[in-house]
């Protein structure tokens, strides 16, 4: 019984040391990726044969990510031929970085009635 108590104490102490070590190693470090308040701010959802939002205004230097949430394939094609995604199946995504101010209209070439616009300031 005494051996079991000693073993339990060693295991608990080791787990505590591991948790404390992990905390010390990651303390003060920010999580990977953009800040939490910006992670979904510059995204366009493709669903129900539409882009949502249909128009998005972003600052120059912003990367916009389109995610296909529809159950059919779509793509994202600039009317000015500035960018073109591959065909996106369900839950696949495409990103493009907008460096220059202007209005960028786009559509789905598979379903041309689907249109959207990114305004870069």
The biggest sheet amounts to: 4 strands, mixed
Q: Can you tell me the CATH class of the largest domain?
A: Mainly Beta
Q: What is the string of SSEs from the N terminus onward?
A: HEEEEEEEE
User: What CATH architecture of the largest domain would you give?
Assistant: Sandwich
* CATH topology (fold) name of the largest domain: Immunoglobulin-like
Low-confidence parts: 14-22, 29-40
* Mean pLDDT over the residues: 81
DSSP helix fraction: 10-25%
User: What's the overall geometry?
Assistant: extended
In oligomeric terms, what are we looking at? single chain
* CATH-level-4 superfamily name of the largest domain: Cupredoxins -  blue copper proteins
Please explain how this structure is put together:
By secondary structure, the protein is an alpha/beta fold. The radius of gyration is 24 Å and the shape is extended. The strands form two sheets. The chain has a four-stranded mixed β-sheet, with no helix packed on it. Strands 3-8-7-5 form a four-stranded mixed β-sheet, with no helix packed on it. The chain has two domains: 1-30; 36-120, Cupredoxins -  blue copper proteins (Immunoglobulin-like, Sandwich), CATH 2.60.40.420. The longest helix is centred in the first third of the chain and has 25 residues, at 2-26. Helix content is 21%, strand content 32%. It has one helix and eight strands, in the order αββββββββ. The model is unreliable at 14-22 and 29-40 (pLDDT under 50). A hairpin with a 7-residue loop joins strand 7 and strand 8 (115-120). It starts with a helix and ends with a strand.
């Amino acid at each position: 019984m005494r051996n079991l108590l000693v073993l339990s104490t060693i295991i608990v102490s080791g787990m505590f040391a591991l948790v404390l070590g992990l905390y010390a190693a990651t303390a003060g470090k920010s999580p990977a990726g953009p800040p939490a308040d910006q992670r979904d701010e510059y995204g366009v959802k493709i669903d129900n044969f539409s882009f949502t939002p249909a128009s998005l205004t972003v600052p120059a230097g912003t990367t916009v990510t389109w995610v296909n949430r529809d159950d059919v394939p779509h793509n994202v094609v600039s009317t000015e031929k500035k960018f073109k995604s591959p065909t996106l199946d369900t839950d696949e995504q495409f990103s493009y970085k907008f460096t220059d101010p202007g209005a960028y209209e786009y559509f789905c070439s598979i379903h041309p009635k689907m249109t959207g616009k990114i305004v870069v300031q």
